[in-house]
Amino acid sequence: MGAGRPLVTRTQEVGTVEGSLYERLGGVEAITAVARAFDDRAGKDGRINQKFARTNLDRLAKEFIDQLCQDTGGPCTYTGLSMKKSHTNMGVTNGEFDAFMEDLAAVLDDFKVGKAEQDELLNLLRPMRDDIVEIDSSQVGTPLPSAFAPAPPL
User: Fold this and answer.
1) pLDDT digits over 79-129, tens only?
2) Whole-prediction pTM value?
3) Strands (E), the chain
């Protein structure tokens, strides 16, 4: 047995999918479908929907798609504001960030995205918590502060 041989054989046995996360998710069309379904779900979720009250939803959808596409290894380029800047004065709580992530996981489940791909995608987004959350609280459904200034429409 060569040093690399057993690992290759075992990998083939468990059916590892090759390629970037972008490719494994199904490309930009699948990412767009997930992002749109997420937008719909988040818009109906009283735990987080107030945070989008003054957000240009067309801009948000485009930037969310571009960000997911870029972060998963796709050809898109995210050109939006930094997470810190775009969420400044939004008053996002830890509970609301968790609700956002739960909604995204539920949509990924609805689309039958595999557990490995879900984990990989959610792990790309989790580090953004520090730039998005401003209030250390488990509270959800908090109003959007009047100090929040949304990005302009596209």
Assistant:
1) 999 999 999 999 999 999 999 999 999 999 999 999 999 999 999 999 999
2) 0.86
3) none
Enumerate domains of the chain plus CATH numbers. 26-132 (1.10.490.10)
Handedness of CA 109, 112, 113, 116 (dihedral sign): positive
* Structure tokens, 14: 């468990």
Residue 141 is encoded by which pair of tokens?
């459904």
DSSP codes of every residue in 98-122? HHHHHHHHHHHHHTT--HHHHHHHH
Q: Is 82 exposed, middle or buried (0-12, 13-18, 19+ CB in 10 A)?
A: exposed
Evaluate if residue 17 carries a pLDDT over 50. Answer: no
Q: How far apart are CA 83 and CA 61, in angstroms?
A: 15
Contact between residue 41 and residue 136 where contact means Cβ atoms under 8 Å apart = no
Neighbours of 152 (CB within 10 A): 7
